[in-house]
Amino acid sequence: MKKPTIVLAFSGGLDTTFCVLWLKKELGADVITATVDTGGFSPEELAAIAKRSKDLGAVKHYALDGRAEVFSRFAVPLIQGNILRGRVYPLSVAAERVLQAELVARVAKEVKADGVCHGSTGAGNDQVRFDAVFQVLLPGVKVHTPIRDLGLSRQQETDYLAAEGVAVPAKTTAYSVNAGLWGTTVGGGATHDPWAEIPDSAFPSLSAKPPTEETEIVVGFVKGVPTSLNGTATEGVDLVGALHALGRKYAVGRGVHMGDTILGIKGRIGFEAPAPLMLIAAHNELEKLVLTRWQSFWKNQAGEFYGQMLHEGLYFDPVMRDIEAMIKSSQETVTGEARIRIRAGHFDVTGVKSPFSMIAGAATYGETSKLWTGDEAAGFAKLHALPMTLAARARAEKATI
């Protein structure tokens, strides 16, 4: 009988290490591992993951670079839509998990795999994201989820591996850290208590002593896409990396998000995402200069829904392409520059400029206008207030009856 071929989304950690051996031993499978780098691995870590896969007996290992796709397909709509879940969190993990699952599915198609596998537990959001993508892109292909199905504790997994002669270093921290191009999230420990403050020590890139002096940067946008830093054309992945490094130096971009998980319970995480927060703030301020009121209103309404769908792993619903088209259309004039001032623990967007500015030549707000007379302004004010004036009059008349 031919051995089944199973492609495993492989991070090299405890759960996916367990999956390799379990799939081999219990299902007699040939296991192909696929690691998708969405900005969370160093070259040394990627080399160690490849070696672990080989040592575990995987028949082949794929190392896939997804950083450019994370930026172009996920970060760009999130920037253009000014999307922050709960008005604070830039959807760091959701933006990356969907792509990771998609690239693993591409490998499964390429090798004509009999099954795919992920190491998510039954408690979190990632299981739903991986399952949803695999269901859409790999119809009829078996999805194996031994960590979820067996319900084993981390200690039980460790014991299973030890019995097979495989040692996995124990975690030395109470926090689970997920790093990627679009930010780093922190779970566990104090995040489980909504009253508890998440300590600085939980964040992996704590700046021991942020600089006391301020610094300014200028981000350039073309049709809503960040394309330059301080006047120098910069590719998206490199631009995000530069802003992350600068933000971490100044201890900027940390926050806490509490909201609804896909499964319907409340969840809370810490995050460190200086680049997304600065880019979204800069983009939003530039938009205020160039978009009409109703463009901004409806685009931001659509963006809020887009973020919810992405969070829930529903990226491949056709409505997402519709919303992306609407958001992209709104960005035709979102070209210009935004200036950001950064100081220890804080940043501000201090200025924006654009050739499509809707301020230039119209009026000096609160002073004078070149486009209408005082009488015309008075007539507008009267008509503008007319509906509520009539409503108040009708209620006053009824009160006397």
What's a concise summary of this model?
This protein has 401 residues and is of the alpha/beta class. The chain folds into three domains: 5-163, Rossmann fold; 175-291 and 333-353, Argininosuccinate synthetase, chain A, domain 2 (Alpha-Beta Complex); 369-396, no CATH class.
List keywords for this structure.
five-stranded parallel β-sheet; Argininosuccinate synthetase, chain A, domain 2; alpha/beta; 3 domains; 44% helix; Rossmann fold; 401 residues; five-stranded antiparallel β-sheet; 13 helices
Task: Report on this structure.
This protein is α/β, with parallel strands linked by helices and 401 residues long. The protein has three domains: 5-163, Rossmann fold, CATH 3.40.50.620; 175-291 and 333-353, Argininosuccinate synthetase, chain A, domain 2; 369-396, no CATH class. The protein contains 13 helices and 14 strands. A five-stranded parallel sheet has the order 3-2-1-4-5, sandwiched between helices. Strands 10-9-8-13-14 form a five-stranded antiparallel sheet. A hairpin with a 2-residue loop joins strand 13 (336-343) and strand 14. The radius of gyration is 26 Å and the shape is elongated. 38% of the residues are buried. The model has no long low-confidence stretch (mean pLDDT 93).
Blueprint (SSEs and pairs):
Blueprint: E1 5-9, H1 14-27, E2 30-37, H2 43-56, E3 60-65, H3 67-80, H4 92-110, E4 115-117, H5 126-137, E5 142-144, H6 146-150, H7 154-163, E6 175-180, E7 183-188, E8 215-222, E9 225-229, E10 232-233, H8 236-249, E11 254-260, E12 266-272, H9 274-290, H10 293-311, H11 318-330, E13 336-343, E14 346-353, H12 374-384, H13 386-400
Parallel strand pairs: 1-2, 1-4, 2-3, 4-5
Antiparallel strand pairs: 6-7, 7-12, 8-9, 8-13, 9-10, 11-12, 13-14
Helix pairs in contact: 1-7, 3-9, 4-5, 8-9, 10-11
